[in-house]
Specification:
Number of helices: 17
Structural class: alpha/beta
Distance between the termini: 59 Å
Strand content: 5-15%
Bound molecules: nicotinamide-adenine-dinucleotide, uridine-5'-diphosphate-glucuronic acid
Helix content: 40-55%
Strand order of the largest sheet: 3-2-1-4-5-6
Low-confidence stretches: none
Largest sheet: 6 strands, parallel
Oligomer: single chain
């Protein structure tokens, strides 16, 4: 069997690499219009940093896993075509800033319609608004010329930083298909791929619309938990309660559960905000304004948390950061990824730059080029510098802000760091990974989220 995936990004690359690893009898080709990205997938320096990914790619690449920019050839040769292209928030026209931009998905559908010569199963892996499958089907059947196209929804639930683990042992795999006989045959074919390593009881099959909506709902619920605990973190700071203790206390209730209750400087990543905006936009479209408002408030709380963090930095530094050196530890939106999309660090750095601070950034995996691109600053901009390690960043700094929870930050020599800084030395743990009391003993003016 031959399958292909259009889109070699954070989802397409890792997802297909794991399918190839678990199904040696299937030939998997991942294609992208971005030739540079494909060249990187074929090199020793993969475009996506994920623990464990290198090993899987090395094991399968050239055997049953291929990366190519020949999209037409992959479409022609594959029985099943996964779509893992980007679905960003629309930046123009009706729904700008809220609706999902579906042009990349539509382009794929049109290309499949043009190129395919036989029957195809098209699998939506990208996160899409409910009923997108209908549009894809419409485009394909309008150009079918006797060919049979089945559309399945198979949303991806992996989280960056743990993608390989999530793909190898997922909580569930969700597959939505048409209730028709042909639709169910297509569902069974995709089920039989996953069955190579996922227990059958973990493979949930539904109708297409439920599958599409479940993906948006899952992300909305996850983001809502973070906004909820972040809202409580502000109250903890006002009252002297400790948000980590509150999270632990409520998380032991089986109905609430302990995961996704870590207070932080705010959630980032390419999907939470975009998917909630999209969900809320859809609600509005269907006349459900109150429902849209409810979900939008999850984003508003996240924006508030980021602004609150920047404002606290300013107030701790005597209400001015002008020309002060502020060291940012971490730029990725979470640990174990090189992805910076919607990272809270971008908002915090931008707020500080607007206050005329000198910002020095250290991240173990994000490139200088990416940081400068995210902050819209050129190489010769003196207000932003990139440090090669956390100690260099701390030299003569007035403040250190922990913005990504990289494990390496937990084992730094903070006594040495303290000595290198200007006094009073301020440290603000935006991820609650450090022992605040121990830092205070060293001499730091130490703050964290929701712990006084
Ligand atoms: P990405 O931007 O990293 O990758 C998308 C790729 O698609 C890009 O390399 C782009 O060049 C390519 N592409 C776009 N149009 C194309 C076309 N017509 N032909 C060939 N290639 C094309 O995006 P991503 O993070 O992998 O996300 C992809 C989808 O998966 C999104 O819908 C996202 O919401 C969803 N998703 C993402 C994650 C995640 O952790 N990043 C997790 C679950 C779901
Ligand atoms: C999230 C979901 O967890 C995945 O299931 C989903 O597939 C994916 O979005 C997607 O659709 O793109 P991801 O964004 O990669 O995955 O990473 P998360 O672990 O969810 O973290 C998102 C953000 O929330 C990060 O900035 C993280 O630091 C923050 N976070 C997470 C917290 O602040 N507190 C927590 O308790 C958990």
């Amino acid at each position: 069997m031959k399958v292909c995936c259009i889109g070699a990004g954070y989802v397409g690359g890792p997802t297909m690499a794991v399918i190839a690893q678990k199904c040696p009898h299937i030939e998997v080709t991942v294609v992208d219009i971005n030739q540079e990205r494909i060249a990187e997938w074929n090199s020793d320096h993969l475009p996506v940093y994920e623990p464990g990914l290198d090993a899987v790619v090395q094991e399968c690449r050239g055997k049953n896993l291929f990366f190519s920019s020949d999209v037409d050839k992959a479409i022609l040769e594959s029985e099943m075509i996964f779509l893992a292209v980007n679905t960003p928030t629309k930046t123009y026209g009706i729904g700008a800033g809220r609706a999902a931009d579906l042009r990349y998905v539509e382009n794929c559908a049109r290309q499949i319609a043009k190129v395919a010569q036989g029957d195809k199963i098209v699998v939506e892996k990208s996160t899409l608004p409910v009923r997108t499958a209908e549009s894809i089907k419409h485009i394909l059947t309008a150009n079918s010329q006797g060919r049979n196209f089945q559309i399945l929804s198979n949303p991806e639930f992996l989280a960056e930083g743990t993608a390989i683990q999530d793909l190898e042992s997922p909580d569930r795999v969700l597959i939505g298909g048409d209730p028709t006989k042909e639709g169910q045959v297509a569902v069974d074919q995709l089920v039989s791929i996953y069955e190579n390593w996922v227990p059958r009881e973990k493979i949930i099959t539904t109708n297409i619309w439920s599958s599409e909506l479940s993906k948006l709902t899952a992300n909305a619920f996850l983001a809502q938990r973070i906004s909820s605990i972040n809202a409580i973190s502000a109250l903890c700071e006002a009252t002297g309660a400790n948000v980590d203790e509150v999270a632990h206390a409520i998380g032991t209730d089986e109905r609430i559960g302990p995961k996704f209750l870590k207070a932080s400087v705010g959630f980032g990543g390419s999907c939470f905000k975009k998917d909630i905006l999209n969900l809320a936009y859809m609600c509005e479209h269907f006349g459900l304004k109150e429902v849209a408002d409810y979900w939008n408030s999850v984003i508003e709380m996240n924006d508030y948390q980021k602004k609150r963090f920047s404002a606290n930095v300013l107030s701790h530094l005597f209400n001015t950061v002008s020309h002060k050196k502020i060291a940012l530890y971490g730029f990725a939106f979470k640990k174990d990824t090189n992805d910076t999309r919607e990272s809270a660090a971008i908002s915090i750095a931008s707020d500080l730059l607007a206050e005329s601070a000198n910002v020095t950034i250290f991240d173990p995996k994000v490139s200088e080029e990416q940081i400068r691109k995210d902050l819209h600053v050129s190489d010769d901009n003196q207000k932003v510098s990139i440090a090669k390690d956390p100690y260099e960043a701390a030299e003569e700094a007035d403040a250190i802000l922990i913005l990504t929870e990289w494990d390496m930050f937990k084992t730094l020599d903070f006594t040495k760091i303290y000595e290198m800084m200007r006094k009073p030395a301020f440290i603000y743990d935006g991820r609650n990974i450090l022992d605040i009391e121990a830092l205070r003993k060293i001499g730091f003016d130490a703050q964290s989220i929701g712990r006084t």
